[in-house]
Amino acid sequence: MELFGYMDRFIWMINGLPEYKAKPILIEPGKRYRIIFTNNSMMRHPMHIHGHWFILRNGNNAHDPLLHTIEVPPGATAVADFDSDASGQWFFHCHHIYHMMAGMARVFQYETIIDVIQGRRNPEKEISTGNYINRPIIRVDEQVPIDDSLVLHPQGHHAGFYFASFLDIGTDLFSNTQRLTYKGLYGPDYNKIELFTNDAELSNGSIENADIDIFYWHLISQFWAVKGGVNYFYRPATEPYWQPGVGIEGLMPYFIALDARGYLYNGSAKLDLEISRDTQLTNNFFLKLGVRPIIASKTVKQAAIGNGLNQMRYVITPYYRLTPGVNINLEFEHEKAFGAYKTLLRNLNQATTENTLTIGFSFVI
């Protein structure tokens, strides 16, 4: 039984599935089962079973201890047996409560209870004492009505609906220019709605750059997600427009973050690629380095899109963590236009190379 989780996404699982995606574990009465716990996460997991005792196999044979909770350290393996000497169905979970609620749980279900709700077996009514003097076995299924839905779909915790937002705001130290980046994810663990606006810019009271992705976001692995939907592009186009878009984002080796998004407008396919890395220098001081090329397949003048490489952006951002989720940053960005896009900017009497230095704050909400 593998214990694992996506710590940064608050998803915890047993054998690769959170509780709400897994079926109950069927057991037969009158048998002894063995569980081999393997903890491949970075946290301890006190695994707790209801209605039974674990026999922790630690090499003492008949003197192996009876435990209702077994602590499995990070990277460790533990072996335990339990006797199926009850009936009904029983909850099994990590006793770090947020791990339990985030998916590290299961239901042990006796096969006999399925026969009862399907009419193939009469309910049990028995009061007896088992082999362990401190554990009486009480079966009163006949006195307590069985809710069929709790047997057919036993589940302690359903998938939650979560809200997570990242906001980065800043102002240029040498001009009346403000910038904003916002990313919001709304939905359950694996399927969300993403709202994303990147480097929106307000200069001297007028909007210079602004667009927003409205994407469906789907987690495909611990580190990668795919997404797709529509993008509303406001500036620097001469007229706002909508365009379809798809993308992939994730974490590559060496903690290099990738966010690749593709769009299609008026026959021109555009690729917006962001690559960055955050390096921790001290306990609270970090350095972010990033590069962002934008490439298109066709020139569309009214959309401010040029054929080939449009621009390159290079970003250096030292930032200090004031408290978890709140940072103060100083960002230097060098932006340079190329090819047909550079010609479009010149025709509009706009700069083709720009250096900005902004101070700002970022928040995780």
TrEMBL record:
> What keywords are assigned to this protein?
Metal-binding, Plasmid
Q: Where are the transmembrane segments?
A: none
Q: Where is the Plastocyanin-like domain?
A: 6-110
Gene3D superfamilies recorded:
Cupredoxins - blue copper proteins
Q: Is Metal-binding given among the entry's keywords?
A: yes
- Pfam family name, one: Cu-oxidase_2
InterPro entries under this entry? Cu-oxidase_C, Cu-R_B_prcur, Cu_oxidase_CS, Cu_oxidase_Cu_BS, Cupredoxin, CuRO_3_CopA
Q: Which GO terms describe its molecular function?
A: copper ion binding; oxidoreductase activity
Its Gene Ontology biological processes? Answer: intracellular copper ion homeostasis
Q: Does the keyword RNA-binding apply?
A: no
Task: Give Gene Ontology CC terms.
Answer: cell outer membrane
Q: Know the name of this protein?
A: Copper efflux ATPase
The species this protein was found in: Legionella adelaidensis
